[in-house]
Amino acid sequence: MNTVQELTVRPLPGLPMFAVGQPIAQAICRALADTGDSLRDGDICVIAQKIVSKVEGRTVDLASLEPGEQAQALARRTGRDPGMAQAILDESAEIMRPHPAAIIARHRTGHVLANAGIDASNVAGGDEGTVLLWPVDPDASARRLRADLVRVSGARVGVVIADSMGRAWRIGTVGTAIGCAGLVVLEDRRGQGVDLYGRTLQATVIAVADSIAAMASLAMGEGDEGTPVAIVRGASRWVCGDDGAGAVSGLRPVEQDMFR
């Protein structure tokens, strides 16, 4: 029987408005130090995708794109700006469901979400056509951030890069892990545990990284809170000594997709 452990999530105030090339790990450690705290072994840093993308220079001016025929057709079908349609196509491996409400796409990384993760909220120039793309490789970004945090703090930590994503069968968005390092992404309990009546678990696979992302995103907020980082404590049982398999290991293989 597993012992229930207290989980806490702490949004981190005092972070700057991040720009291209600005070191995120140093800013996190400095902001923690300003509160009289520091990273500890087993901490998990949940970092909003937007600041990672900003630091990596993933902004695009839609006016700079030249929409092709496919983008023009997609724009007509969905009522989107042709430049936005082209940006979505550029970031996608597959357009799964074009709709005026959202263009559901399989991102190059394998994640399925609206508009290939492209967003203008909390982006300078968003009203004038500047949008933000996901990191080129969110798992690689998480690995770099983890290495920087370990180097600066000396603590054994996990990193989750989180973005808000919808779900096909539910209303609303939930914080989801799109990049991960140093953390168990899935805890497979099948055949490993029992329920209250002693029955062996047959289908239980816990989405650890997504659950932590969701909890932290609630605390971080989605608007003008200005807290794009949260520290999760009490989850050290899932923090591993190496980088781990990354968030992509939690994606359902295409051949097992039950919603196609």
From TrEMBL:
SUPFAM superfamilies: CofE-like
GO molecular function, one term: metal ion binding
Domain Coenzyme F420:L-glutamate ligase-like, residue spans: 15-234
Pfam families: F420_ligase
Domain of life, per lineage: Bacteria
InterPro entries in alphabetical order: F420-0_g-glutamyl_ligase (IPR008225), F420-0_gamma-glut_ligase-dom (IPR002847)
Keywords assigned by UniProt, alphabetized: GTP-binding, Ligase, Magnesium, Manganese, Metal-binding, Nucleotide-binding, Potassium
Keyword Ligase attributed: yes
Keyword Magnesium recorded: yes
Protein name as catalogued: Coenzyme F420-0:L-glutamate ligase
